[in-house]
Amino acid sequence: MPIYEYEHLTQSCTAGQVFEVKQSLEEEPLQHCPHCQGAVRKKISRIGLSIPKTSTELRDLGFTKLVKRDDGVYENVTQREGESRYMVRGKPETLPDFSKTLSD
In this predicted model, what pLDDT tens digit does every residue of 22-38 receive, in sequence order? Predict the structure, then answer.
């Protein structure tokens, strides 16, 4: 369930000037503070995402990144030791060894 920020329009209460509320997407925005019943409005907030940016970061997290280089040829830019740099259609020996990265 998403967490939304609300801001008091007049004065803050024990919840503070800005407070957070867990709500489903279908719920209507709050009009009043659940603590003091004062008027509130929903704030537009930034979210924090941590997305790996480099191929090395992806490899270290256990991902395999393939980049298409030609028809039926893909470059494994997250290549691990013993893996082929290129995957070629019809050559199963060029497939990455997923048993090194997949687990239950």
Answer: 988 889 999 999 888 88
Q: What share of the chain is helix, strand, coil (3-state, %, to 5)?
A: 10, 30, 60
Asked if residues 40 and 9 have their Cβ atoms less than 8 Å apart, the reply is yes
Biggest distance spanned by C-alpha atoms of the chain: 69
Residue 99's SS3 state is helix
Task: List residues bridging with 5 in a β-sheet.
Answer: 20
Closest CA to 44 of 1, 4, 3: 4
44's CB contacts (< 8 A; 6+ apart) are: none
Contacts of 35 (CB under 8 A, 6+ apart): 13, 14, 15, 19
Per the CB < 8 A criterion, the answer to whether 21 and 4 are in contact is yes
pLDDT-based confidence at 39, cuts 50/70/90? very high
Please state whether the predicted TM-score (pTM) of the whole model is above 0.70: no
